[in-house]
Target: Alkyl hydroperoxide reductase
Amino acid sequence: MLRSRSLGVLIVAAAVTVAGVLISDVELSVPAGQQRSADSPELGADPAGTETGATPCPVSVSGAVAVPTLSGAMARCLGSAQPVDVGAAVSGAPTLLNLWASWCAPCRAEMSVLDAYKDTPGAVRVVGINVRDRPGSAAVLARDLRIGYPSFTEADEVAGALGAPQLLPLSYLVDTDGSVRRLPMVVFGDVARVSETVAAARRERQE
Model:
């Protein structure tokens, strides 16, 4: 009798574990308690040592007006220790902002597509916004995927300024006039879809 009850407990525990894996693979949001990754560096670690090889982020251009929606929203570039005003840094050029986290499976798939998109003719600048994550985990993922566009991290202020819902991935288009438009909440599966979505958003702004 005792052996049967023990076996039943083990079966239930295994079922819960499997269900948890399946849920994490399909949902676009993760509860706050799951936003920390186990492979992260210790808090207070030097970004220069734990985030080496990260692509430099854009910097503010002299005379450019900060994007109003993002003005004053602070974050730091992966690989840099100095927080910057993201609204000033991304001003002056059309930019696709992609909100992502290392624990987000759809984000990982989409990041490779965006990396390919950035090199296509007519592509706008791509900048990642790493949120609800550990910077060390973010840097490791970007290196593993060989992502060539930059990302700001510790960027929850940016997500707040955008009014972003608790879903990932999310993309926004910042245009040259400083306007910000949220793109459709889909996971980009190919480069053509990214190009079409960005072009449509820019046309809508001009109409």
In short: Confidence is low (pLDDT under 50) at residues 1-27, 29-44. The domain at 71-204 is CATH 3.40.30.10 (Glutaredoxin). The radius of gyration is 19 Å. The longest strand covers residues 95-100.
